[in-house]
Amino acid sequence: MYAVLIDAPQAEAARATAFWSAALGVTAEPFAPEPQFTTLHEALPGLVTAVQAVDDAPRIHLDFETDDVEAETARLLALGAEQIAQWQECRVLRVPGGHVMCVLPLETDPETFRAQANVWP
């Protein structure tokens, strides 16, 4: 797993960011390459944690990072997920129970990724 995202409707994203930053006792910093994301630094050590402004309902979702988006998506589909959207190279899946998750290409530096990644047969 790569990240935990707190999705907030765009009109509420600034208030949600202020709340989560204060509640978790961490600093919030906009992520310049993708302005809909605000990083909550070190909220969950070892995981990226961010508030994401969305045009959808509020929720929390997980991002899975992989060096093979197609293969990881196929693996999760075989486990019962269904693909509901694609955003850039990311696949958006709805998993059993109704939660949303994303499968995204490598974001971590490759050496760290190789050292920490699960490898599936």
UniProtKB/TrEMBL annotation:
Residues 4-104 form the Glyoxalase-like domain. CDD domains: VOC (cd06587). It comes from the Bacteria. This is Glyoxalase-like domain-containing protein. It comes from Streptomyces melanosporofaciens.
